[in-house]
Automatic annotation (TrEMBL):
SUPFAM superfamilies per record: lambda repressor-like DNA-binding domains (SSF47413)
Species of the source: Chryseobacterium angstadtii
One annotated GO molecular function: DNA binding
Lineage of producing organism: Bacteria, Pseudomonadati, Bacteroidota, Flavobacteriia, Flavobacteriales
Protein name, per record: Uncharacterized protein
Domain of life assignment: Bacteria
Length: 201
């Protein structure tokens, strides 16, 4: 089983494309090579695959990266399933993970939510999607400053608050306040729960 994320940038037409697309490419290159593992297509849509263990953390890395740019957000559909055919281009690969993710993105565009998951198990889908709807109330309201801090924490799990304070030229207490406002400890717990539920599939 693999995880496939299909996403699109919200408000991309109101932002400097070169800035966000360069940052997104740099992020995705950390996780694999294009176009085998990821691809950006149709201007502001993208797709990539990863292990099911990593998918929640990967989703948050993308979310925080895009939210750290003024006026931008991202819609993300997570599909969990099989990969029956692996092409040299991810957008030509196939299997239930791809089908689940692609169809789900179309549903998200019509229902107004920014993240959802589809697996082969309706009960797991129900539990995780309720969790995602609640947590997205936080994620969707991150300020640029909060998103930047969260992104650094996700990408550098050993980074200290002192390191973050130096990086952003703010006090350690400001770092601590931003992490509290973002409910970072709850995010870590949510990731653990997410991994446990998916491992039961």
């Amino acid at each position: 089983m693999i995880a496939v994320i299909t996403g699109d940038i919200i408000n991309s037409q109101h932002a400097d494309t070169e800035v966000w697309i360069t940052r997104l490419k740099n992020l995705l290159e950390n996780w694999g090579s294009s176009p085998l593992a990821w691809e950006i297509y149709r201007g502001d849509e993208f797709q990539f695959k990863c292990s099911i263990d990593e998918v929640f953390w990967r989703f948050l890395a993308i979310k925080s990266l895009i939210r750290s740019q003024e006026n931008l957000d991202v819609r993300i559909a997570i599909g969990i399933g099989e990969e029956n055919f692996s092409s040299e281009k991810i957008t030509e690969s196939n299997g239930t993970a791809y089908v689940n993710s692609g169809r789900l993105l179309n549903d998200l565009k019509s229902d107004g939510h920014t993240v959802s998951i589809k697996t082969s198990n309706e009960a797991v889908d129900r539990d995780l999607n309720i969790l995602l709807k609640w947590s997205s109330k936080d994620f969707d309201s991150w300020t640029v400053a909060t998103a930047e801090i969260i992104h650094e924490m996700i990408m550098n799990r050993d980074i200290t608050q002192e390191d973050l304070a130096k990086k952003f030229a703010i006090s350690q207490s400001s770092v601590s306040q931003r992490l509290k406002r973002a409910n970072y400890e709850l995010i870590v717990e949510t990731n653990q729960y997410f991994r446990k539920k998916i491992s039961e599939l």
